[in-house]
Specification:
alpha+beta; two-stranded antiparallel sheet; 26% strand; 16% helix; flat
Length: 69
Amino acid sequence: MNKSTAFTDWIESTLVNAELDAARQTLTIALKDAKKQTVRRIRLSNAWASRWEGPSLGASESGGRPRSR
């Protein structure tokens, strides 16, 4: 993720505010490696947000590396 709010603004306008006229957009997703080099681009035409699922967060989680059990 970067510091731009364009993606989250689009999610909010389509899912939260139901602004369906602005829903369909053409967008590009760039997947980057650890050195921030683009390794793959995915272009979506007339895409819209139908669901958003983020990571689950818990108060007992440290946010660090997963622990071995």
